[in-house]
Amino acid sequence: MEKKMKVAGFVSLATGLFMLLAGHAAWAWNDTFAPGDLFVSLKTGEVQWRHADGTLVRTLVGSEGYAEGMGLDASGNLFVTHWCWVDETGTSDCDRGNTVDRFNTSGDRVGTFGAGYDCNPTSIVFGPGGDALVGQADCSQDLLRLDSEGGPQASFDAAIEGRGTNWIDLDPDGCTVFYTSEGPSVKRYDVCTGAQLADLTNSLPGGDGHALKRLPDGGVLVANDAVIARLDAAGSLVQTYDVEEEPEAWRGLDLAEDGTSFWVANRSSGNLFRLSLADGSVITG
User: pLDDT of 77-134, one tens digit each?
Assistant: First the structure.
């Protein structure tokens, strides 16, 4: 049986996952974020910075509110979205949290990024020109575009299903946003023309769709409740992945730097795995 990589002390709290890619190989090991490093966001608002072997480097402390999605700008700074703060009774306060934190490449918090989040920013990606796109789970549920300094540029009233423009990824064309909305679809929106596009699919297997990543072949990898689904560029289901005995609670997802595997996080168990794209075998976990 594989030894599982668990987020120590935070079982059931892992809600997002981001992995640095190989393009930043010049960064100094240990002193700054390095190729293959793993970031795991937690409901405590913290982010665990780990090496690819699972070793905990540091816990990054930011704003209040659940820490959700993460992204990197061209300089390698880490951006972490936070939902509204929730008290012990389950009451939300969007005057606390409800923001995006920015960390430099040494893991030091250097303030917040952007403004005007009406509530629960969930995912963030950066385009080729440096602009950021942010998917929001609630309130207006709009997709937001901000400039590289966080200045509001536009909001897009994209079609939704269960919950907003929750999890997003950007096509290399810099225009087409792929997103899930806690429903059965991978939806698409063109932020260059402001037009809703046809869904890539509206029949995801295994429950609601969550985090997703574009693949180099034009397909998409999607974390659903029960399985991780691989779609081709036409939206056809190519393959599904799962790990034996894991709960139906796949959430966080990112591609590994080797191009042949991916990382996935299970929200209920708190376990992290690296799986082979080819056959789904567990490489690390």
Answer: 999 999 999 888 889 999 999 999 999 999 999 999 999 899 999 999 999 999 999 9
Provide the residue type at 101 as one letter: D
In the Cβ-directed half-sphere of 15, how many Cα atoms lie within 13 Å? 22
User: Among candidates 201, 210, 202, which has minimal Cα distance to 228?
Assistant: 210
Q: What is the DSSP letter of 203?
A: -
Residue 274 sits at the vertex; the CA angle it makes with 199 and 29, to the nearest 5 degrees, is: 110
Tens of pLDDT, residue by residue over 17-43, are: 444 333 343 344 457 898 888 899 988
Tell me, what CATH number does 269's domain have? 2.130.10.10
Structural domain including 166 reads 5-284
Task: Note the pTM of the prediction, 2 decimals.
Answer: 0.90
Please give the tally of structural domains in the chain: 1
| The pairing of beta strand 228-231 with beta strand 237-241 | antiparallel
Report the distance separating Cα 282 and Cα 285, nearest Å. Answer: 7
